[in-house]
């Protein structure tokens, strides 16, 4: 057993749980909504050679 990352309720990680690692479809969709709403982010380092934006927003 594990804890649902959305609501902390006990959930199964077995293949019988269609929504794993979540406990329900509701928790899975709530988490997806957090990503779509940009409330979760993945940090990115600006490395040389990456696309850069000018002050007017155009890509270099």
From TrEMBL:
An example Gene Ontology biological process: regulation of DNA-templated transcription
Keyword terms, alphabetized: Metal-binding, Zinc
Cofactor(s) it depends on: Zn(2+)
InterPro entries linked to this entry: DNA_gyrase_inhibitor_YacG (IPR005584), Znf_NHR/GATA (IPR013088)
GO molecular function: DNA topoisomerase type II (double strand cut, ATP-hydrolyzing) inhibitor activity; zinc ion binding
Free-text remark on how the cofactor is bound: Binds 1 zinc ion.
Origin superkingdom: Bacteria
General function of this protein: Inhibits all the catalytic activities of DNA gyrase by preventing its interaction with DNA. Acts by binding directly to the C-terminal domain of GyrB, which probably disrupts DNA binding by the gyrase.
Entry similarity comment: Belongs to the DNA gyrase inhibitor YacG family.
Full protein name: DNA gyrase inhibitor YacG
Protein species of origin: Stenotrophobium rhamnosiphilum
């Amino acid at each position: 057993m594990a804890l649902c990352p959305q609501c902390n309720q006990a959930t199964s990680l077995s293949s019988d749980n269609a929504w794993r690692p979540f406990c329900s479809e509701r928790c899975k969709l709530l988490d997806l909504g957090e990503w779509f709403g940009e409330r979760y982010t993945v940090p990115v380092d600006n490395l040389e050679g990456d696309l850069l934006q000018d002050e007017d927003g155009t890509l270099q």
